[in-house]
Amino acid sequence: MYFKPLALFSCVLLFSACRHLPEQSVTPVQAVSEVQSLQQRDNNLKQKVNAYTQDQALFDVAFDDLNQDGQDEAIVLLKGQDWCGSGGCTMLIFQGKSNHQFDFLSKTTLVDTPVYSTTYMHNGWKQVLVYSRKHGQVMLKFDGTQYPLNPSLLPVATAKLPPNTAKLLLGVAD
Q1: Cα separation of 156 and 81, whole Å?
Q2: Could you give the CA distance from residue 137 to residue 140 in angstroms, rounded to a whole number?
Q3: Which of 47, 49, 59, 145 is the most exposed place for a label (fewest CB within 10 A)?
């Protein structure tokens, strides 16, 4: 029996591909449920951000349990000319609620990356370390209602944080 070289190559390639197919695994129900839950969280947050900005604003987001109630807060750094200027961009914090819902908590202007949450607490909330252009790193302390509006009015954080006291939320660390 005579095979043309192309036909032989095709058969070898087909046999090889069949032998090396990855094993199919069934995705556990929990994993599917978790993905759906995260999609719902992201959709809920996007609706809240759009309602706040009154448009389809672009943003970066990180999640961290700032008040240690078991629900992650959403730390949102808005992008674009409507929300950013020479001093930085607007950062919004939405308090996490049950069922991946969010309530607006706080607005801080003149924020740039990196943004960190720290292990330091003030009025039951983690302190947030942000960078403000033309000013430097600033520690935002929760006042019982919100985080400060303008970090450029706060003292620059000059002390280096000890290891394991800060978690990078947004941006790239120096």
Answers
A1: 26
A2: 10
A3: 145
